[in-house]
Specification:
One of its GO terms (molecular function) is L-malate dehydrogenase (NAD+) activity. It catalyses: (S)-malate + NAD(+) = oxaloacetate + NADH + H(+). It is an enzyme of class 1 (oxidoreductase). The protein folds into three domains: 64 residues, no CATH class; 149 residues, NAD(P)-binding Rossmann-like Domain (Rossmann fold); 165 residues, Lactate dehydrogenase/glycoside hydrolase, family 4, C-terminal (L-2-Hydroxyisocaproate Dehydrogenase, Chain A, domain 2, Alpha-Beta Complex). With 420 residues, the protein is of the alpha/beta class. It is globular. The strands form four sheets. Strands 5-4-3-6-7-8 form a six-stranded parallel sheet, sandwiched between helices. Strands 11-12-13 form a three-stranded antiparallel sheet. The protein has a two-stranded parallel sheet with strand order 1-2. Helix 4 runs parallel beside helix 12, helix 8 packs across helix 13 and helix 9 crosses helix 12. It is built from 13 helices and 13 strands. It starts with 7 loop residues before the first helix and ends with a helix.
């Protein structure tokens, strides 16, 4: 600032300059952000016009040196957190919002969570806010989205958080997204199976996927809403009708089954669960969940009793949590953790990392079924390769046949919901 543009009495003020910048207010910004264009070290307080007796801002601005690009970015990042719901600060304003950068300076990814105010959605949103690969995080729900957004936006991590409430704001939540995570739907209650959720959750998934097809057809979709064995086929049919279906980009999240398998096997072996890897194939409900214990890493062998115990516990893991909570909820926290692990590998695949592999329920030719959960290699276009099952022992072959029979019915149920 050129101090000569101020009246004499103002130049005598040593502590602060008072400037008008209608209609927005920035309170005491550190001078280090303005060093490229300030001649003297000062703090700046921008106040409303009615609070100042000085020259008009337009006259002062003519005396200011041009702002550098770096300074623009700094101011914009501040404004992004002050005004997260507005696409820009105002017409003609230099304080336009930009997205924060991911760790290391590289551009991050834009992620939307549909159902962000629910039991899974809230911890999922918190954990995604902590992910250094995320630059923009959109939180959508039909209730309570503003509160969750305000809460999570206070976390001092890089991602810019924006909230969207209700059907009318779904389009804004989805536009331009790289990854869409869908935990929306009602939770399981004691005595309920995943199929009991079908009638309600099927309609929710259909509506959300119609929005995805319209607003971000190239986004990778991580579908958590149960029953996954049916909701993934529903999503596929919606995308086919819209002409946007890409089987590589539609991924049913079965990572909770893998997380449970790693944990339970580690307990039996006395190992750290982080050192254990158990492939889980088939589907994401009951008998369709098939852990391949013969392929555990590190290699080990189990007795028949251990195999039956582990398989049964992995298959019934969700029921175990529902009963333990006694009607107060389902496996929300562990599901959020597992979903974030899977979302992270999807983002690493989008980034172009090599050797990114995880289990997911996808369009598949591994069996005669149109969808099947198995290991997939993730890349810039989604599930770029679906791996075969590998050698199975007799117990696993029998389990596979049982899983396929039940899985076929669930898949057809989802397809019929849209076609009929």
């Amino acid at each position: 600032l050129d101090k000569n543009c101020f009246p004499q009495k103002v130049r005598k003020k040593k502590q602060k300059y008072f400037l008008h910048h209608s209609p927005y207010i920035i309170i005491v910004l550190s001078t280090q952000h303005f060093s490229p264009f300030l001649k003297k070290s000062r703090n700046i307080l921008i106040r409303n016009r009615k609070d100042t007796n000085f020259l008009s801002f337009q006259r002062i601005r003519r005396k200011m040196q041009p702002l550098g690009a770096e300074v623009h970015q700094r101011i914009a990042r501040i404004s992004a957190h002050l005004y997260p719901s507005n696409p820009q600060m105002g017409d003609g304003s230099i304080l336009e919002r930009t997205n924060c950068r991911a760790k290391g300076g590289a551009a991050g990814f834009k992620v939307a969570i549909l159902g962000a105010a629910g039991g899974i959605g809230q911890p999922l949103a918190m954990l995604m806010k902590m992910n250094p690969l995320v630059s923009v995080l959109h939180l959508y729900d039909v209730v309570n989205a503003p509160g969750v957004t305000a809460d999570i936006s206070h976390m001092d991590t890089g991602a810019v958080v924006r909230g969207f409430l209700g059907q009318s704001e779904l389009e804004g939540a989805l536009t331009g997204m790289d990854l869409v995570i869908i935990p929306a739907g009602i939770p399981r209650k004691p005595g309920m199976t995943r199929d009991d959720l079908f009638k309600i959750n099927a309609g929710i998934v259909r509506t959300l996927c119609e929005g995805i097809a319209k607003c971000c057809p190239n986004a990778i979709v991580n579908l958590i809403s149960n029953p996954v064995n049916s909701t993934v086929p529903i999503a596929a049919e919606v995308f086919k009708k819209a002409g946007t279906y890409d089987p590589k980009k539609l991924l049913g999240v079965t990572s909770l089954d893998v997380v449970r398998a790693n944990t339970f096997v580690a307990e039996v072996l006395g190992l750290d669960p982080r050192e254990v890897e158990v492939p889980v194939v088939g589907g994401h409900a009951g008998l369709t969940i098939l852990p391949l214990l013969s392929q555990v890493k590190p290699p080990c062998s189990f007795t028949h009793e251990e195999t039956e115990y582990l398989t049964k516990r992995i298959q019934d893991g969700g029921t175990e949590v529902v009963e333990a909570k006694k009607g107060a909820g389902s496996a929300t926290l562990s599901m959020a953790y597992a979903a974030v692990k899977f979302a992270d590998v999807c983002l690493k695949g989008l980034r172009g990392d090599a050797g990114v592999v995880a289990c997911a329920f996808v369009a598949s030719q591994v069996t005669e079924l149109p969808f099947f959960a198995s290991k997939v290699r993730l890349g810039r276009t989604g599930a770029e390769e679906v791996y075969q099952l590998g050698p199975l022992n007799e117990y696993e072959r029998i389990g596979l046949e049982k899983a396929k029979k039940e899985l076929a019915e669930s898949i057809q149920k989802g397809i019929s919901f849209i076609r009929n």
